[in-house]
Amino acid sequence: MDMNQYLEIFVEESREHLQAINEHMLKLENDPSNIAIINDIFRSAHTLKGMSASMGYEDLASLTHQMENVLDAIRQEKITVKDHTVDALFESVDHLEAMVESIIAGGDGKRDVKDIVHTLNLIEKGEDPDSDSGTPSSQTGSEDTGLDEFQKSILQQSIDQGMNAFTVKVTLESTCMLKAARVYMVFEVIEKISEVIHSSPAVSDLEEEKFDQDFTVTLITDLDADEVQTKIGKVSEVETVSVTPFNATKEASEATQEAAAAIETDKPVEKKQEKEPENTKNAKAAASNKTMRVNINRLDSLMNLFEELVIDRGRLEALAKEIDNGSLTDTVEHITRLTSDLQDSLMTLRMVQIDTVFNRFPRMIRSLSKDLGKKIEFNVTGGETELDRTVIDEIGDPLVHLLRNSVDHGIEMPEKRSEAGKPEVGTISLTAYHSGNHIYIDIEDDGGGINRDKVLKKAIENNIVDEAMAEKLEDEEVFQLLFASGFSTADTVSDISGRGVGLDVVKSKIESLGGHIHVTSKPGRGSKFAIQLPLTLSILPVMLVTIGLETYAIPLSNIVESIIIPKGDVMKAHNQLVIDFRGKVVPLVSMKDVLEVESVGEEKDTYSIVVVRKGDQMAALIVDRFISQQEVVLKPLGDYLTNVFAISGATILGDGKVSLILDCNDLIK
Questions:
Q1: Beta-strand pair 606-614/194-200
Q2: Measuring CA to CA, how many Å separate 206 from each of 222, 397, 531?
């Protein structure tokens, strides 16, 4: 059977189960006696094992099988959850995630997991893996063949079809000098009379003589046990050959069949003894029938079609005004309402809970805190907040950088916190929430705060500011220096920070998404990084203005106010034209000069000004005329025009003309 048709579903469900295991493992670490959490982890591992076996990913199935054994031993109270147990399970998840990523990249999902399987095996037996000096490769595989569910299912199917399945244990003479050569001769005989399903130790280890005197081979053949024993026994320096029939359990077969059905029907597998109440199953079935997976490429295609519809809608509106026909105007207004509703529905389809990004951070914080020897409590709020998928895809890396910065630079060591009269356990909070047409993400810690003097000293050393300017800077302006290119206050180089790659990468990415980042901090009490992002990037509300003979669009998210002022109100400060805007001095920028546009029409006694904001900085843009506000479709300029100053994209207006969209971040910068 061609299993590739199930690959996409397998990948999606594998990621979901691995994420679920990660989340429940963090809970288990804080509540190791909670059987309900262990059962949740067990179910995810059990389902993942069956799916992997059905798809033929042996290493995945083997590792999840061993994880399942450890979890089952915990459930049966044969062992207790200790630090090394949690660490081993987390390491197993890392291996599983790497194997799934390998499969996504077109690989076979194979990975050397002997060491972690050996560690899990010791934990299952109640032994401390830290005190174990042996390696799995030095042990014989004669007692445990290490078969996974996929291999067991093949053996069972062969038995059902009238074939013989045997486990053959071959012991070489103690005087055998060339063990690898004898193994080769044994395998040459075996492969002529049978099909090899599994060997223990692995063939690569046998070739390198990483075994004592015996090894085990599981095979399928038409011959009976005596014939197999006789043929292998003829190989010289083979002391004994033990051939025993393989008894594939019904449980292995059923687990594989259930997993195959799960992949085919897109439903999770549950162990038979853990039956759910009928009403719960009915409720789940009803919920699953009302949802469906849709390839994101289809949504992107639908979005592109809708964007063309928005452009045509603008054209219809322009034509309706020119013709001035009542029936046409009514029809266009109806189409406008319908497309607005369609836009809301389509945007909702593209919205993804930010939890999909937040979910990976608790595990990261745990690992970092252990590496640094810090105690950290990590709180996540607002994971259900929804954001456009295009923004979701880009925001992950900046958040990782900011969180690592909070762990490394923000939270102090436990002893230092105690000396300052603070709890040994530091707190980092990650919060997301909606407000208007924006989403806000806050990263806050109760650490030592940002050292203003240290930041200024470093900025002066790097020639980012001079000493005279440094004395005049407000706290917010000082903190913004952290985002200067190459700026870092780390005293030592580590894997976490101090490599000269500062927060400038974070700021650049956030601004490329049309967002802003603000920093506040209090010495000894902590810091807060607040990110503001637009809900969506593809369709945006703008103000249309004319500059010369051209029409330009300014995103409403950047606009503070549009005003008309007499030319006499313009002042000069430090050779720069400025205006007094609500008690604040704001620099005046002539867009004709910036865009090198020729003047048209008569000179006026007033300026038409659009005040725009980027963070706490503002600028007043001089334009010729305000036209109107409308929603436009943002189109990229293409690879040839990626570095055009102050232009972020283009749009097609209702009259069919192209209008450039101004990048206010560049203008203020």
A1: unpaired
A2: 26, 44, 57
Q: What positions carry a catalytic annotation? A: 46, 68, 405
Report residue 536 as tokens: 């969506």
The boundaries of every CATH 1.10.287 domain in the chain are 296-353
Amino acid present at 120 = L
- Which amino acid, one-letter code, is at 364? M
Residue 118 belongs to what H/E stretch? Answer: helix 114-124
Residue 554 pLDDT: 92
User: In this structure, which topology does domain 3-138 adopt according to CATH?
Assistant: Four Helix Bundle (Hemerythrin (Met), subunit A) (1.20.120)
Q: How many CB atoms lie within 10 A of CB 334?
A: 10
Predicted pLDDT of residue 280 = 46
Q: pLDDT tens-digit profile of 147-189?
A: 766 677 778 778 878 888 889 999 988 788 778 888 888 888 8
The answer to whether the pTM exceeds 0.85 is no
| pLDDT at residue 141, rounded to an integer | 35
d(CA 437, CA 599): 35
Separation CA 89–CA 86 (nearest Å): 5
Looking at the chain, which residues constitute the CATH 2.40.50.180 domain(s)? 539-668
Rounded to whole angstroms, the Cα distance separating 372 from 496 reads 9
Amino acid identity of 185?
M
Taking each helix axis from N to C end, the angle separating 225-233 and 179-193, rounded to the nearest 10 degrees, works out to: 140
Q: Which numeric CATH code is attached to 296-353?
A: 1.10.287
Tokens 């010495």 sit at which residue? 523
pLDDT band at residue 32 under the 50/70/90 scheme = confident
pLDDT digits (tens, 9 = 90+) for 194-238: 888 888 888 777 887 888 888 898 989 988 888 888 888 888 888
Residue 287 has pLDDT above 90, yes or no: no
End-to-end CA distance of the chain: give it in Å, rounded.
60
Q: What's the rounded Cα separation, in Å, for the pair 663 and 631?
A: 16
pLDDT score, position 146: 64
Domain boundaries for CATH 3.30.70.1110 within the chain? 149-250
**Assigned fold of 539-668:** OB fold (Dihydrolipoamide Acetyltransferase, E2P) (2.40.50)
**CATH number 3.30.565.10 is the correct assignment for the domain at 355-534:** yes
In whole angstroms, what is the distance from residue 512 CA to residue 614 CA?
12
For 555-565, the pLDDT digits (tens) are 888 889 999 99
Chain segment 250-260, per-residue pLDDT in tens: 444 444 444 44
